[in-house]
Amino acid sequence: MTAPKTIYDKIWDAHVAHEAEDGTCLLYIDRHLVHEVTSPQAFEGLRMAGRTVRAPEKTIAVPDHNVPTTAGRENPEAMTEDSRIQVAALDSNAKEFGIHYYPVTDIRQGIVHIVGPEQGWTLPGMTVVCGDSHTATHGAFGALAHGIGTSEVEHVLATQTLVQKKSKNMKVEITGKLKPGVTAKDITLAVIGETGTGGGTGYVIEYCGEAIRDLSMEGRMTVCNMAIEGGARAGLIAPDETTFEYVKGRPHAPKGAEWEAALAYWKTLFTDEGAHFDKVVTLKGEEIEPVVTWGTSPEDVLPISGVVPAPEDFTGGKIEAARRSIEYMGLKPGQKLSEIEIDTVFIGSCTNGRIEDLRAAAEILKGKKIKDGLRAMVVPGSGLVRAQAEEEGLADIFKEAGFEWRLAGCSMCLAMNPDQLGEEERCASTSNRNFEGRQGFKGRTHLVSPAMAAAAAITGHLTDVREMM
Amino acid sequence: MEKFKTVTGVAAPMPLVNIDTDMIIPKRFLKSIKRTGFGVSLFDEMRYNRDGTEIEDFVLNKPAYRNAEILIAGDNFGCGSSREHAPWAIADFGIKSIVSTSFADIFYNNCFKNGILPIILPQEQVDVLMKDAEKGENARQTVDLEAQTITTSDGEVFSFEVDPFRKHCLLEGLDDIGLSLEKVDSIEAFETKANAERPWV
């Protein structure tokens, strides 16, 4: 009998194309997603070495980081010259190397991690990589998915493999049921608050437990998306009926007899009884509250009922880091988190730019107006999410409340396009990183769920969404 | 890639924990389609005022550390995005080795692809190296990859671990795409088998 395996072990074993004596492996890559920022140097490297893309049919490109999210963006004048050059480079590289491509004029264009699952490129049991740390998102399907650097992008383009050593196994279990007003975003932030941003370093996380099982595919994507913020190489969730239901019928999902064969295989992708985990973290679902971040690291998480901590509450190097964060964020120790006033709200990103995220925010905003003087924007994760939200009447709710209703892209999550915070502007954001300068030079970010972002938009300060439900 | 043997040079102390890739190279510098020229923008928002003048008390702006070749850093260095622009900027500035108690995974990988040696040591040893680095430009440290040691200016020696394959690639300055393509038969065999077993992929 073979030793019990985790789902990570199983996917890993199924993708080793070559193993050297020292355990260094060539791991075969089933899907390679590409965007405009981390790929131009890789394609240039291929050209210089006279190499080709080994599996163009497994390579999918979409511009997302740089693209403006305002009307008229297909006009080259809408972008700064350097952005235009990057998008144009992706355009010509996609054509030259014959890879799948969704240009900004295509309704399927959007954030690469939203487009992949939406189009059925991402399937259970696959290995998925992208020159982007939030590739972890695709782990929601029971795929092994992680970010890579540009040299590795070039390596995958040329060889369809990655040089890898296996990570350790970590289990994050969320038991029980979530309370009303608590979402997948609160789970994933609460986990990082517990483990720290380095807690997952060297591990692949499997998220499990009743609260994870109860999540929709979209919620699971939100959870896995931020595995990287906990330092993990990847985060994944064993596929189940929820997964199969989501995948079925998508443009690139298998059909007919192939669907049946795939389904039979996918049902073997679970962690065997007694499989070994090197680290285990357990949180009780019913104890998780809606959370916000107060600092400049995603581990700086507290329930909305909390107060800004003091540097002395920490130990070691975190004391100085917390002092720096509190100063950068313009806060005072002891200040109630629910009294922090904001001037901007951003709803979108690969973390929370899917249709359910927009529904959750619209539910709170229905019939209400945002606080006077506040700047609020919704940036759907893809053109298809946007179209669906318009069809469901969500766009009207946002617009009537005073939100800007934008086109798809990464937008203010990392502010590489014109959507940026000004100096000392403070934003309640559904994105994934609150680093210094992330959303604009000296901008201040508080990470929250879509429902919490909507609540903050109405009151003008960080707000416990449960008071509005 | 340039070969990495030994480095003897000034070590700059950056004790702050969780230095992320957005700090190392802010996004406005990610719009280049080249791999070079990022050194001047390394740590941009910590290093320069908005008008482009230098912030005097930032470590790499101090006369003692302007030519640093080694960085002694706080925990979890390089967390955040996968941008290889971070190690490109570090290498372009002239830093060849970084020491910390821990590195973020993707950043750690990216270093080796760019001739930078990231060294993981226990807190007590990082503390000693940090104190040594704080002495300034006379405190030159030596990293010896072959011997897997780092030596303080006082001659105290610490050993470090490094993956043998990665060590080999750094020492020889090898391009790993070329190495992997030597195994193309294995890749082809895998594809044939995988296509039969999982034709829907």
From TrEMBL, chain A:
Its cofactor is [4Fe-4S] cluster. It catalyses: (2R,3S)-3-isopropylmalate = (2S)-2-isopropylmalate. It comes from the Bacteria. InterPro entries: 3-IsopropMal_deHydase_lsu, Acnase/IPM_dHydase_lsu_aba_1/3, Acoase/IPM_deHydtase_lsu_aba, Aconitase_4Fe-4S_BS, Aconitase_4Fe-4S_dom, IPM_dehydratase_rel_enz, IPMI_cat. Keywords: 4Fe-4S, Amino-acid biosynthesis, Branched-chain amino acid biosynthesis, Iron, Iron-sulfur, Leucine biosynthesis, Lyase, Metal-binding. SUPFAM superfamilies: Aconitase iron-sulfur domain. Pathway: Amino-acid biosynthesis; L-leucine biosynthesis; L-leucine from 3-methyl-2-oxobutanoate: step 2/4. One of its GO terms (biological process) is L-leucine biosynthetic process. The keyword Flavoprotein does not apply. [4Fe-4S] cluster binds at C350, C410, C413. Its EC number is 4.2.1.33. Residues 9-460 form the Aconitase/3-isopropylmalate dehydratase large subunit alpha/beta/alpha domain. Gene3D superfamilies: Aconitase, domain 3. The keyword 4Fe-4S applies. Heterodimer of LeuC and LeuD. Catalyzes the isomerization between 2-isopropylmalate and 3-isopropylmalate, via the formation of 2-isopropylmaleate. Belongs to the aconitase/IPM isomerase family. LeuC type 1 subfamily. This is 3-isopropylmalate dehydratase large subunit. The gene is leuC.
Automatic annotation (TrEMBL), chain B:
InterPro entries: 3-IsopropMal_deHydase_ssu, Aconitase/3IPM_dehydase_swvl, AconitaseA/IPMdHydase_ssu_swvl, IPMI_Swivel, LeuD. Residues 1-123 form the Aconitase A/isopropylmalate dehydratase small subunit swivel domain. One of its GO terms (biological process) is L-leucine biosynthetic process. This is 3-isopropylmalate dehydratase small subunit. Pfam families: Aconitase_C. Belongs to the LeuD family. LeuD type 1 subfamily. It catalyses: (2R,3S)-3-isopropylmalate = (2S)-2-isopropylmalate. Its EC number is 4.2.1.33. The gene is leuD. It comes from the Bacteria.
